[in-house]
Specification:
By secondary structure, the chain is α+β, with helices and mostly antiparallel strands. The protein is 32% helix and 24% strand. 13% of the residues are buried.
Length: 94
């Protein structure tokens, strides 16, 4: 069963931005990329429980990258994550 007309309209209205980490061949570089990306996310106002992290051995993917949403995490086969651009782009006084 597909998305109804209202669901499609809501999906189209959501503004998003893709943040992708560089491909790397070693764990230390991946770990550093995650730390820098997390510093950026904090500056953008993202909750500290939402963060990139690296592990040396993945179960399902061939990258070092994961993303934590507090209570769960996702292995990032494509090394990136969509974020809500409207939220991240809001002015401090909004």
């Amino acid at each position: 069963m597909g998305a109804g007309p209202m669901e499609k309209k809501e999906q189209m209205l959501e503004k998003r931005v893709w943040i992708e980490l560089d491909k790397t061949d070693n764990f230390q570089d991946a770990k550093e990329n995650c730390e820098l990306a997390n510093q950026m996310l904090l500056k953008l106002g993202v909750d500290k429980n939402y963060k990139f992290f690296a592990v040396e051995k993945q179960k399902y993917t061939h990258t070092f990258y994961n993303f934590s949403e507090g209570h769960a995490f996702t292995e990032l086969d494509d090394r990136g994550k969509w974020f809500n651009l409207t939220y991240l782009g809001k002015k401090d006084d909004e």
